[in-house]
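Q: I'm writing up a methods section and want to include an example of the input and output format. Could you take the sequence below and give the corresponding predicted structure tokens, formatted cleanly so I can copy it straight into the document?
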Amino acid sequence: MSEAVTRPGITADALLASLDPLLRPWLPRQRWFAGKGRPISEFTVTSVTELLPPTADSGLLHLLVRVRQPHVPGQTGGAPPPPADCYQLLVGVRRELPTRLAPALIGHVTQGPLSGFTVYEALHDSRMSGFLLEALRMRARIGGLRFERDPHKDIGAGLVPRVLAAEQSNSSLVYGDTFILKLFRRVVPGVNPDLELPLVLSREGCTRVPAPAAWFLGEGKDATDDAYVLGVLQPYLKGTADGWELALEELDAGRAFSGEARALGRVTAEVHLALAHALPTVTLGRAQMELIAEGMADRLDAAARAVPALQPYAPTLRTTFEALADLGRGEEMWTAQRIHGDLHLGQCLRSPAGEWSLIDFEGEPSRPPAERRLPQPAVRDVAGMLRSFDYAARSRQPWAPQWAGDCRAAYCAGYAEVAGRDPRMDPVLLRAYETDKAVYEVLYEARHRPDWLPVPLAAIRRLATNGPATEAH
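A: Here is the clean output for your methods example:
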């Protein structure tokens, strides 16, 4: 498997003739497609690798496709979209599709080199998805793909794959309840923090984040381009409970969650301390704090243009960011470090023994990759978790403010037990980051889940009326 598998008969241009008519309607229907609400104006295949060259009956193609979409006013928060998005696809090729794979159908090809074949989402085909694990085991090099692994990790052969149903911005395959392979769908060249930071934490001896066992990369267009991180294989934490679902269960049963919130605060602080020890930190002075405040104000203005319901609160919310800028003009200095970047209850898993782990270190998908890797105040992660407790409580009726307030206070107290400093001791900074997160949520829900928009808007009303940042009103 170490040799490249290529066949000169299929080129990117030729393949496009076969797949373009099918992928244009199929891609926007996928949960992980980021450009919903905008038509596809241009579609190109930038990379094609024949993992299993199409034979008379079947084949497996790995594609990187570039999608360009026109700017639609109001859909991008006032800023133009990126020139194009690059997506990773695994396309199965068969003469006839078995009934069990009917839900994975992309379409029937009528032109180009695959004419007469049926193409489908290959992750749902155990033979095809099993090939990926074998490539990782063998550290294969196939065309422009490079499969790597930790030599100290044992990866067994023949583990049966299954696709996780909870697909979001990426796709995940579980192999025999032993490993989980996260496949990144929208990819960019360069370092991916979802591989970078778990590797760093593993070397630091931090056990709160599953350590990568293997990963695979795609080569850039030429020698000057960075590689694409395409997938990461990690231990599958069997029997764990998702923090979001667990919180909702406790809410529905009328039980407190403050004990778990306190434990989560401790775990967050452990991860932050390990990252600060392993990677460089920076000191934030006046200029840096003013830039942070300016960025928050700009995001508020863009969101208010896109979501009219936010506009009445914008002037008051802006004063929160002005207070942050004023804070930077004093004598105090702050520290920025690498953080999780998109921390909420859904990124937390509790084992049957009651131990918590943190996952998914990609950061907010809407932010540029370079920005996600910048050192930031650790309180940003704290604010994300505070918003998550509020989200859970607000998703249920009647609204339980005491439950949310208890969780928020317990989380901060747990964080202080490990970090030595309570996040509530920086109220202006904490409030600014919580407000910035709520603004992000308003824009996200307006675009993707309009029925959920009242949840972050309730927080916006609280924050705009000067409600304390660590209490629920």
